[in-house]
Amino acid sequence: MSLFDTDELVINMGPQHPSTHGVLRVVLRLDGERVVGADVVIGYLHRGIEKLSEHRDWQQIVMLTDRMDYVSAATSNLGYCETVEKLMQIEVPRRARYIRTILSELQRIASHNLWLGTHAMDIGAMTVFLYNFRERELILDLFEEFCGARLTYSSMRIGGLPLDIPSGWARKVSAFCDLFETKIPEYEDLLTHNRIWKERTRNIGVISGADAIAIGLTGPPLRGSGVPRDVRKDEPYAAYDEFDFDVPIGSAGDIYDRYLVRLEEFRQSLRIIRQAIAGLPEGPVVGKVPRLIKPPAGETYHAIESPKGELGFFIVSDGRSNVPYRFRVRPPSFCNLQALPRLIKGHLVADVVAMIGSIDIVLGEVDR
Amino acid sequence: MPAFITPTVIAHLVLIFAVMNMLVLSSAFMVWMERKVCAYIQDRLGPNRVGFEGLLQPFADVFKLLLKEELVPKAADKLLFLLAPIISVAAALTAFSVVPFGTQITLFGLLDPPLRLEVTDVNVGILVVFAITSMGVYGIVLAGWSSNSKYSLLGGLRSSAQMISYEISYGLALAAVVMLAGSLSLREVVMNQSGYWWHLIPRWYLFLQPLGFLIFFTAGVAETNRAPFDFPEAEQELVAGYHTEYSSMSFGLFFLAEYVNMVTVSAVATSLYLGGWLGPFLPDWLGWIWFLIKTLALLFFYVWMRWTLPRYRYDQLMEFGWKYLLPVAIVNLIVTAALVIWLG
Amino acid sequence: MDVIAFYVFAAIAVVASLLVIGQRNPMHSVMLLIVSFGALSGLYVLLDAPFTAVTQIIVYAGAIMVLFLFVVMLLNAHTEDEVVPPTLGPHGMKVAVVLSLALAAEAIWAFSRISPTVFSNDPGLTGSISSVARIGAGIFTTHAFAFEVTSVLILVAMVGAVVIARKEA
């Protein structure tokens, strides 16, 4: 029956493709429209940030961390600064820790906004994208008022913050929280109970909790599979141990659950921000930091919960030079992306973009 | 002056010319409306620089397209590649030719016999619309195939499968109306809808065939490849589907065809279900205003849907078409037939 | 006017049909076949049979040829490059000639027996709905047997296609 022998169709999705979220390239092997295999090709955005960091002094590296997850620069800043602080055992003032928490939760909302917008657009719901950018814009305004930048903030320093919050900023953040609370139902109206949305996301890209752990998923994709792992809760950093919040988890581990988890994280982030604003202590925003930062010889690993998952920094200092001896990042996007070939096998081409979206990757972080 | 050039002939030629241009203009207007409505839905302003409230924006876009280089991929089948957009537009424009959009005008007694407001009244008009719409698929299939690109091919295949599948439901919905009206001419179908029930509810087939209208419109959306059924050009999956490789005005022609098709489907739906040009308050010869209003309302619905709903997945669409829409359409047809026989 | 139109349509139909066979690219053949069908439907219009004309487009040009296109596209048959050696021997050729002559004779005989009265000039036939009604009545009463047999034939073809496709999967 050689007449009906069909070749696999190999399609190069990316690196220039509207919905691979940057320069991801996925080589898909298709049988009709069904994916029989996928190879993820990364590296198109590799800038050698890790190696570069070994040639920059400690404060300069903050600027480099901005360029990793460029839609969530504040959390990258935080992860790096806290790692160095841990290495040098610097005490960060409570006010600075509170503000850091507010910043990283605002950043989480902004990042999830971007995720929800692009993810919905991948599935064809264009309007959600604009709605999300409308709110993200407000957060960017807040960041701009705080540190003058809108994308690559360099908003933290080793030992604290570069500057205190401007007067009236806290009130604006509260106002944003009140506004944003009314906007979440708008997204939900368009998506959560939408039949098409459900059909596109339910039981698609299912991964069990055990598998998710085995692959090394972290963040919302892991929690979507029902594993209540959240660095903020399990190994609190900044000021998270002082606030009440829940860690939402899914049950089915499909795209829809990952979506629900992130939507709930919007609300939990608002909860944290409100508590932090209400209890914002007075005091300095920078701790006692030596003029020349030169951590003692040693190594440390410290992780935070970035919007995308566990963002870890492993830093080795030789104690002699004023640059890190070894600088290594555990980026959540990179680790979560490993799940992609496994998730999309057997699904359709249309699901591939939904899957990429549901993992929420930023190529700047994957390639570094 | 030769004998055959009578005022009627001239009026007909003018009418044909006018209808063609109106269709093209209406698609420009639709582009504007789409962008404007979409902008308001999305909390934006939309185009507002070129002309009043951006009304001239589509023309600016067309000028831009005309100035672009026409690229033909090396591996493409050049003849078919260039032919495909032309087929698309030709099919789209021709389908409108049998749609009546008003009664008849004498142009203040100038024309005798009076001029009917339609390009031609074919006595199998409904079938002509159906036939020509089904020809539109060739433009898309050929574009997909001749581009010699995988994305285009997938887009073309999807589209043709989709159009064939939904054509059946589309046809069955049409058949139910034909049975009610006892005529295949769109003009007669419209005339059959005149009058009121209890002096209040217009005798539109919408009320006799609510299910049929839904089927017709859903299938129409699928036929015109619009959201949420816009797979052939699902840009997130297939880049731009069948017209990935097109540039310049060839691309513009596909765009034009899509919008003209939308106008045609809405106009046909108006004639079949919404009483065409019939409506209160206006004198007979101004009936086309009602026709415009109704068609615009349907077009607005099209746009509204696109900017609200996510996109179905391809297999879900086919499943919907074959497992739900088609059976419902068949049941609708059988019930209608039974009622027509039973009630005479 | 009608005569000119007839010759134009007829010429298009004949030339397009001939070109169908002459093409190396199956895609072009399919397109030319559609052109030929279009010209045929033009001829039907000239015969005052708009219903038949439209049906011709819907069924042949609209549905069947799209399926043809599908097959051509899916099997990715770009061109008929390889020259297939004639599998028929000299005897096969002779048989073929005899058979085709027999077919031609049959056709001529059949056409000669058609009396011109079949093409009625009944004005009722050219009306829209009445002609459709008559066609419908004709199919379901006088020609019911032929109609049903044809449907069974198509059903068998469909089942066959499904079976073949299944085997592969």
Describe the SSE topology:
The complex is a heterotrimer of chains A (368), B (344) and C (169).
Chain A: E1 9-13, E2 25-31, E3 34-41, H1 49-53, H2 60-66, H3 73-88, H4 94-122, H5 126-147, H6 169-190, H7 195-201, H8 209-215, H9 220-224, H10 231-234, H11 255-278, E4 298-306, E5 309-317, E6 326-330, H12 332-337, H13 339-344, H14 349-359, H15 363-367
Antiparallel strand pairs in A: 1-2, 2-3, 4-5, 5-6
Chain B: H1 7-41, H2 57-67, H3 78-95, E1 104-105, E2 115-116, H4 125-146, H5 150-181, H6 186-191, E3 196-197, E4 201-202, H7 205-208, H8 210-223, H9 235-238, H10 248-273, H11 287-306, H12 314-343
Antiparallel strand pairs in B: 1-2, 3-4
Helix pairs in contact in B: 1-10, 1-11, 2-10, 3-4, 3-10, 4-5, 5-8, 5-12, 8-10, 8-12, 10-11
Chain C: H1 2-22, H2 26-46, H3 50-74, H4 90-113, H5 123-126, H6 128-140, H7 144-168
Helix pairs in contact in C: 1-2, 2-3
List the defining traits of the structure above.
heterotrimer; A: 368 residues; mainly alpha; Cytochrome-c3 Hydrogenase, chain B; three-stranded antiparallel sheet; 15 helices; disordered N terminus; B: 344 residues; two-stranded antiparallel ribbon; 12 helices; 4 strands; globular
Question: Care to describe what's here?
Answer:
- The complex is a heterotrimer of chains A (368), B (344) and C (169).
- By secondary structure, chain A is mostly helical.
- Chain A is 48% helix and 12% strand.
- Chain A has helices at residues 49-53, 60-66, 73-88, 94-122, 126-147, 169-190, 195-201, 209-215, 220-224, 231-234, 255-278, 332-337, 339-344, 349-359, 363-367, and strands at 9-13, 25-31, 34-41, 298-306, 309-317, 326-330.
- In chain B, the strands form two sheets. In chain B, strands 1-2 form a two-stranded antiparallel ribbon.
- Chain C has 169 residues and is mainly alpha-helical.
- Chain C has a domain at 1-80: Up-down Bundle (Four Helix Bundle (Hemerythrin (Met), subunit A)).
- Chains in contact: A-B, A-C, B-C.
